[in-house]
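We emphasize that the prediction below concerns an isolated chain of 70 residues; any contacts that depend on oligomerization or on bound cofactors are therefore not represented. The input was used exactly as deposited, without trimming of termini.
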Amino acid sequence: MNYLLLGDLLPDSSSYYAVMMGVGFFLGVYAHAAKMPRLVAFSIMLVFLTTLLTLIAARTFEGDPGAPLP
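Result of the prediction step, given as a C-alpha cell string:
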C-alpha cells in the first residue's frame, strides 16, 4: 500500500521555512512589546512548528544537495 507521508507534502525550498520562522519571531517581539500573552504563546508555537517541519522536510529530502562548497 502506498502511503502519503507528511514529508511529501512539504516544500523543498528553505525560503518557506525561513519566512515562517521570521514571522514567528516578529510576532513574538511585537506581542511581547504590546503585552499580548496569547499572541506570544502563538508565536512560540509557530517557531516550534516551523522547526519541526524543517526537520521533517530535511529528513525526507531526496534531491540534489546542490553545488559543493569552495
